[in-house]
Amino acid sequence: MKGTRWMAAVMFAAVVAVGVPARAEDSGAADAALAEVQARARAGAAHFTEAIAGADSLRVRKAELPHSSFSGPVAYETADPEEIAELGRVIRFEAPWDGGLCACIGEPTFEWLRDGELLVKATFVGGHEIRWHDGELTPGLTAESAKELKAWLEKRGIPYEH
């Protein structure tokens, strides 16, 4: 199962898995669950980085209000290889990750393409997270990366409004 339904199921499972244990003896299970979620997030971050590396174009979309669509109007588009690579360098994931997830839909949405075919679709969420629409978990961005991503957007006339 791909897409937003699968992503929502993964996010719900991650939130449940890292929840506060009900009893003291459950803390070992919660620690193990958190370690599993962190490992999946590190793997997702590596897959994300690999997946965007082959892009030859990039689209940035604003959400359609009331945040009901990830395919809103195109706010920015480029085929400049250096600009696409710069965005890839700006996105750096945090480790270790506490397992926290923002539940908002977020915006803008980034689409990395190769030969017109979509490689990766991901959304900037909560000012600190990139949510990959393929459903793989990724850890939050480093604080510096989040700041740089907001500056990258601002430089292109896309103010971050979360």
Descriptive report:
With 162 residues, the protein is α+β, with helices and mostly antiparallel strands. It has one domain (4-155). The chain has four helices and five strands, in the order ααββαβββα. The longest helix has 26 residues, at 27-52.
Strand and helix layout:
Elements: H1 4-17, H2 27-52, E1 57-61, E2 74-78, H3 81-90, E3 109-114, E4 117-125, E5 129-132, H4 143-155
Antiparallel strand pairs: 1-2, 1-3, 3-4, 4-5
The average pLDDT is: 78
Tally of DSSP helical segments: 4
Distance from N terminus to C terminus (CA atoms, Å) equals: 29 Å
* Overall form: globular
Compute the number of strand runs: 5
Number of domains: 1
As residue ranges, the low-confidence spans are 1-24
Give the SSE string: HHEEHEEEH
Helix-strand makeup class: alpha+beta
What can be said about the biggest beta sheet?
Answer: 5 strands, antiparallel
Biggest β-sheet: strands ordered side by side in the sheet: 2-1-3-4-5
Strand residues, percent? 15-25%
Radius of gyration: 16 Å
Helix % is 25-40%
Short description:
With about 160 residues, the chain is of the alpha+beta class.
List keywords for this structure.
globular, alpha+beta, 5 strands, 162 residues
